[in-house]
């Protein structure tokens, strides 16, 4: 008898009290909890997202499509970032045109790094910043969800660099609550839910921001744009 | 502390020592009170908490009642998504499977995400015997590992250490495990977190094998979920080439939608946050992103025995949030080590005796490690009635009775040391069944009350050492009632 059979047989013996007619979807689960807490206009949801992001020490910026490349450039410059890794499907209009043409005379102080399947974690560790979009943002919890889509890339690129700039298209990508977020996400994709920069409460249960994940999380709420694709 | 729970003394002996440790009590009081208040605030933000709690309990109960179905569904989904599923009936088997899987990669080092299941089975020790070094990467687990210590809290295993103790451990031990602590390390939590970041960086970047547990497993999609704060989880789950997850069979939930309940209940109950900094979900393997080999080891190790007890099975709903530890007056004073297992506090007092059986003195003592105040039940996000299970297990200890061990029905003998209690209870039952004898006995007690000792003799001595014996009144209630208002029931001819 395999261990699989042993364990399953034990489970079945242990459940001798469960009536034969009871199916796996019995007994019913009461789902009378709220789909979303409180009622908000779209603008209020975006506002709440910004508030909750900030409360967990993410730095929140707002921009329109026109100002976005300039803002991103400024954020990188202020940090002194020399290299920034971007996912392959990032919206090209987000980037300063000068970066895309390394031979350009006007040039840029920031070098774009493309993520390759063959690049090692060490190579990523040498990169200063990462710039991505996201799949969904949750207002009530201040959470960004990345689903490894074309404008988000492999999970590791938003993990190893110490500085993450994440662009959220508002209001399209903003949902109110966790129950509203899950139906918009595909379980077969690898997901990373991010609520503020990495943190720990392991010393005296005091929250400290900044451990292994990016220690600086900047979120740009990009207004008035439709979701890509 | 030797890094193992083997041969731990029964709870009263361990607690007698730990309650005298003033530093420990100060550390625990500070930490548990801080988190207690924060949790209450985070929970109060959701006006449907009671409904979420009921739904969480209902999902877990439903899953447990059809666990065989959901485990098979999960296995099929994980396999279809490119994962390999292994089954382990007990700790030894799980350790053998993981050791073999690591050996097959040819690696001698693994990085670990904090995992209760691997603590429970003693995986690190088993790997060490096979010449494989396991690096704990959660900050608190790192503190415990460097200090050759044992975890004392589910969420914050080093809760018994304060910041200056942690700094001393880092200064002393980091060098022998890898990058030494920075010179002049201070005891500010930020500096200590930075030291951990530097120490572990190299390990993450070079790791080829990661080992994790999981908070949830979704049966319909085969998705595993790990909830964390530091990013060490993400490092272990995404950078290595091979990922091995050891997960208790009770961690399965039926649907993707069910996560909407638990991802609201868990962070608020455990770290008192609206959402923890990082949650990772993965389904099998993904081409070009993350580990290309994924093994899931499904662990029984006493869970099916727990499932067989219709009262005790509710302990398997536990989502390891640790809210019950933080409110428990006994935990706050005794500390986590006294519970003699990776599961301390109220949940440990009902989980450990059920997972391991109650034949040993430690396990038999754990159901008594509680004042039955009920605070644990109040805060439990999946409504485990811990006091109910404690009382149920106490009855098992005193009376013995049918239990399931290793999947086989057996009869537990009454524990030693409870003979006097059993005799007293039998005498009381007989007396309450014989009204004449009860009346005679109470009158005798009332008339002889000047002669009563202040301490009990014989086996009752220990009990009355810390308690005053109740004073016997001059007249029993029954006599008083008959004398003042009642008439004799025999005269009225009605029921006794």
TrEMBL record, chain A:
SUPFAM superfamilies listed in its UniProt record: NagB/RpiA/CoA transferase-like (SSF100950)
Domain of life: Bacteria
UniProt cross-references to InterPro entries, sorted A to Z: FTHF_cligase-like_sf, LUD_dom, NagB/RpiA_transferase-like
Location of the LUD domain: 47-222
Coiled-coil residues: none
Pfam family, one: LUD_dom
Protein name: Lactate utilization protein C
Organism of this sequence: Streptomyces inhibens
The organism's taxonomic lineage, starting at the top: Bacteria, Bacillati, Actinomycetota, Actinomycetes, Kitasatosporales
TrEMBL record, chain B:
Domain LUD stretches: 71-297
Annotated coiled-coil segments of the chain: none
Keyword Metal-binding: yes
Record flagged with keyword Iron: yes
Residue span(s) of domain Lactate utilization protein B C-terminal: 393-483
Domain 4Fe-4S ferredoxin-type: 315-384
PROSITE patterns named among the record's database cross-references: 4FE4S_FER_1
GO biological process, one term: lactate metabolic process
Matches recorded under Gene3D superfamilies: Alpha-helical ferredoxin (1.10.1060.10), NagB/RpiA/CoA transferase-like (3.40.50.10420)
InterPro entries: 4Fe4S_Fe-S-bd, 4Fe4S_Fe_S_CS, FTHF_cligase-like_sf, Helical_ferredxn, LUD_dom, LutB/LldF, LutB_C, NagB/RpiA_transferase-like
GO molecular function annotation: 4 iron, 4 sulfur cluster binding; metal ion binding
Residue span of region Disordered: 449-470
Keywords, ordered alphabetically: 4Fe-4S, Electron transport, Iron, Iron-sulfur, Metal-binding, Repeat, Transport
Record PANTHER family: LACTATE UTILIZATION PROTEIN B
Protein name, per record: Lactate utilization protein
UniProt source species: Streptomyces inhibens
């Amino acid at each position: 008898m395999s261990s699989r059979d042993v364990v399953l047989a034990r489970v079945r013996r242990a459940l001798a009290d469960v009536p034969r007619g009871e199916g796996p979807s019995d007994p019913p689960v009461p789902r009378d909890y709220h789909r979303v807490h409180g009622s908000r206009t779209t603008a209020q949801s975006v506002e709440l997202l910004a508030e909750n992001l900030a409360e967990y020490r993410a730095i929140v910026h707002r921009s329109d499509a026109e100002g976005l490349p300039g803002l991103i450039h400024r954020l990188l410059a202020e940090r002194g970032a020399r290299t920034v890794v971007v996912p392959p499907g990032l919206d090209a209009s987000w980037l300063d045109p000068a970066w895309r043409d390394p031979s350009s005379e006007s040039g840029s102080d920031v070098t774009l790094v493309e993520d390759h399947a063959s690049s090692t974690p060490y190579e990523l560790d040498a990169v200063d910043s990462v710039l991505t979009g996201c799949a969904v943002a949750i207002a009530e919890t201040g959470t960004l969800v990345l689903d490894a889509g074309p404008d988000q890339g492999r999970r590791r690129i938003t993990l190893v660099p110490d500085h993450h700039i994440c662009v959220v298209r508002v209001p399209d990508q903003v949902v109110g609550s966790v129950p509203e977020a899950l139906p918009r996400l595909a379980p077969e994709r690898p997901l990373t839910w991010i609520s503020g920069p990495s943190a720990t409460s392991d010393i005296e249960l005091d929250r400290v921001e900044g451990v292994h994940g990016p220690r600086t999380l900047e979120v740009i709420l990009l207004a008035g744009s439709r979701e890509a694709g | 502390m030797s890094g193992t729970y083997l041969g731990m003394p029964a709870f009263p002996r361990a607690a007698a020592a730990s309650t005298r440790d003033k530093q420990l009590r100060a550390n625990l009081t500070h930490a548990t009170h801080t988190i207690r208040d924060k949790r209450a605030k985070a929970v109060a933000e959701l006006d449907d908490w009671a409904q979420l709690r009921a739904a969480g309990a209902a999902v877990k109960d439903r899953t447990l009642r059809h666990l065989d179905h959901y485990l098979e569904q999960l296995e099929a989904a994980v396999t279809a998504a490119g994962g390999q599923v292994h089954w382990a009936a007990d700790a030894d088997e799980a350790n053998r499977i993981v050791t073999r899987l690591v050996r097959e990669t040819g690696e001698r080092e693994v990085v670990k995400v904090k995992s209760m299941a691997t603590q429970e089975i003693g995986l690190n020790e088993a790997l060490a015997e096979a010449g494989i070094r396991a690096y704990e990467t959660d900050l608190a687990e790192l503190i415990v590992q460097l200090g050759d210590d044992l975890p004392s809290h589910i969420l914050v295993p080093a809760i018994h250490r304060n910041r200056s103790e942690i700094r001393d451990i880092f200064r002393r031990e980091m060098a022998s495990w890898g990058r030494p602590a920075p010179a002049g390390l201070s005891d500010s939590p930020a500096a200590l977190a930075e030291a951990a970041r530097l120490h572990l960086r190299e390990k993450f970047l070079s790791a080829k094998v990661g080992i994790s547990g999981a908070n949830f497993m979704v049966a319909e999609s085969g998705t595993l979920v790990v909830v964390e704060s530091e990013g060490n989880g993400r490092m272990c789950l995404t950078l290595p080439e091979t990922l091995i997850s050891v997960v208790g069979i009770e961690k399965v939930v039926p649907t993707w939608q069910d996560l909407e309940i638990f991802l609201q209940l868990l962070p608020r109950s455990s770290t008192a946050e609206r959402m923890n900094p990082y949650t990772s979900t993965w389904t099998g393997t993904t081409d070009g992103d993350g580990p290309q080999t994924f093994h899931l080891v499904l662990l029984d190790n006493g869970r099916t025995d727990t499932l067989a007890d219709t009262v005790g099975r509710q302990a398997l709903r536990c989502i390891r949030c640790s809210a019950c530890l933080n409110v428990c007056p006994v935990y706050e004073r005794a500390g986590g080590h006294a519970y003699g297992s990776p599961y301390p506090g109220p949940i440990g007092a009902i989980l450990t005796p059920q997972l391991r059986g109650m034949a040993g003195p430690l396990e038999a003592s754990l159901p008594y490690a509680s004042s039955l105040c009920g605070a644990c039940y109040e805060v439990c996000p999946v409504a485990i009635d811990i006091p109910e299970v404690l009382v149920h297990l106490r009855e098992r200890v005193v009376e013995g009775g049918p239990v399931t061990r290793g999947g086989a029905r057996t009869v537990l003998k009454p524990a030693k040391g409870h003979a006097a209690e059993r005799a007293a209870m039998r005498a009381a039952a007989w007396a309450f069944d014989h009204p004449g004898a009860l009346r005679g006995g109470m009158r005798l007690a009332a008339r002889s009350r000047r002669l009563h000792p202040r301490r009990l003799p014989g086996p009752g001595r220990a009990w009355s050492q810390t308690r005053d014996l109740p004073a016997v009144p001059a007249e029993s209630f029954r006599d008083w009632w008959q004398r003042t208002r009642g008439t004799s029931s025999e005269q009225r001819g009605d029921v006794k």
